[in-house]
């Protein structure tokens, strides 16, 4: 396969960047306090795993429409409820409850799983919806996730015909206070109205145009205090008078390595060539740096695009892959500074932003949501310099599929929709993605590590 021209655009994309002092603090060693004084290297330490607790996942929903009320163009309305698929590895299964309200619009579902006999129970849930309406058309899918104190939305747009809405959900029992930051060509800004109180079991929806000013492609940082929140971005586009896609994009965290394991370019999308695949990258350290970008064909392992994006402090960079041929690809990124990223792919009258996921090791669950084609692609890419082996098994019983990955390779299997699967990483470490990718219906989400497992805590006497 021949190499193609790479288009790099810097400065037209907006971004959110973590203040340099905060990042320096997050990477510096924290002082310890012990009986022999603060910071003593020889201080005794013990690692303790907390008792398993209840796992609460917050789902997207409902899909939103803006401007349907002629008397109030800024009013949001519910366009479609999300179908929820969930499962657990043991017990009677998780409890679903529509209890995260968006006032005067609708409610989202929370999925709750209790421990069994004091042991954590793996759980997963996902949502999806397909629309064919005068103002919204396309397929959207997302995973239900726990709240987080920090998240970044890497792919957003404020341009004619595009409507982006930032949705912040608080599944906890206490109020969260959220601070929004927007980064663009002029650096970090704190928008008017960028501090938001999100009551317990409620959502807030913020049109990105109301906080991003004149930025065409902002990236948004969300910081929560009081309680962790779940952040997502709903995006939709109109071209002239015709709807062109709907998408749900999850928040991500900064990393120095990121992989989107599966980007499917359909034949029609490749032939049209008018909405090429692109990746947006933003360094989050407040310093200049660089990110190596490599697009690898899934079948052959051949690198079909390779470039280095030079990052100016606080300025995002968009890289477009003009002329990418029909096929399946993994997009790999490696930086000398921490960064956030997302990959955008179109499929005729629909598009999706694919966010990289966290590394997967051990076992986790993934819920394959309802799909317009009756199946969902599960994709995995080996991380690091080693290969990996992954086993995928339906939790309700059925045959196990095994994915063997050489170093630097990715592969995809197809599984029936509306079912939950165990993902067992037998060896190595992988990045995973669940997706649907056909003309007119494209969307997906990262496969997350098991949210039920309590993280160890280091105690210094």
Q: Give the amount of beta strand, in percent.
A: over 45%
- Categorize the overall geometry: globular
**Cα distance, first to last residue?**
60 Å
As for the number of domains, it is 1
Number of helices in the DSSP assignment: 3
What share of residues is helical?
A: under 10%
User: Rg to the nearest angstrom?
Assistant: 21 Å
User: Biggest β-sheet, characterized?
Assistant: 8 strands, antiparallel
Number of distinct beta strands: 34
Mean pLDDT: 89
Structural class: mainly beta
Spans of 5+ residues with little confidence (pLDDT < 50)? 1-40
Q: Care to give the gist of this entry?
A:
With 461 residues, the chain is mainly beta.
Written account of the structure:
The structure is a single chain. With 461 residues, the chain is mostly beta strands. It has helices at 20-27, 209-212, 267-272, and strands spanning 6-10, 46-48, 55-58, 63-66, 76-80, 83-88, 95-102, 106-113, 123-132, 137-143, 150-153, 162-170, 176-184, 187-189, 195-198, 202-207, 219-225, 230-239, 242-250, 255-265, 277-283, 289-297, 303-311, 317-321, 327-347, 350-354, 360-368, 375-382, 388-394, 401-405, 410-416, 419-438, 441-446, 457-459. The strands form eight sheets. Strands 1, 20, 21, 22, 23, 24, 25 and 26 form an eight-stranded antiparallel sheet that branches. Strands 27, 28, 29, 30, 31, 32 and 33 form a seven-stranded antiparallel sheet that branches. The protein starts with 5 loop residues before the first strand and ends with a strand.
